[in-house]
Amino acid sequence: MSEVNRLRKSDQHSALVDQLQQVIVAAGFRGVEIRIDRETIRHASIAEYVPGYISATPVAAAVAGLDKKAQAKITADVRDALSAYRVGDGLAAPIEAHVAIGHR
Questions:
Q1: Cα within 13 Å of Cα(32), Cβ side
Q2: Beta 30-43 vs 90-103: how paired, if at all?
Q3: What is the pLDDT along the chain (104 residues), one digit of tens a residue?
Q4: Distance of CA 56 to the CA centre of its chain
């Protein structure tokens, strides 16, 4: 990743964290702390994982409304995008989650 892209991503991340903190404070929480937790997801079968992953995303309804051929193409594209994280027939991929802690 180039330095410019790294900085752009960092700026976008900072804006996201600031926005998240503002929403939580506006909901009545104080002492809000936000951290990033990193883990590795593992699944024994990438072929089984990908359809479940797609069905849990914000685009799930749109994908479900497509014909079977288009759904299969999207599934194949996601599987191919995850190929760097393939372990045998399975998957071991890094994930990040923003965790917010505050008090009322």
A1: 18
A2: antiparallel
A3: 555 445 445 677 788 888 989 999 999 999 999 888 999 999 999 999 999 999 999 999 999 999 999 999 999 999 999 999 999 999 999 998 889 999 99
A4: 10
Classify residue 10 as left (phi > 0), alpha (psi -120 to 50) or beta: alpha
For every residue of 48-78, DSSP letters joined together read HHHHHHHHTSTTHHHHHTS-HHHHHHHHHHH
The pTM assigned to this predicted structure is 0.65
CA–CA distance, 85 with 44 (Å, rounded to integer): 12
Q: Which residues contact 44 (CB under 8 A, 6 or more apart)?
A: 89, 90
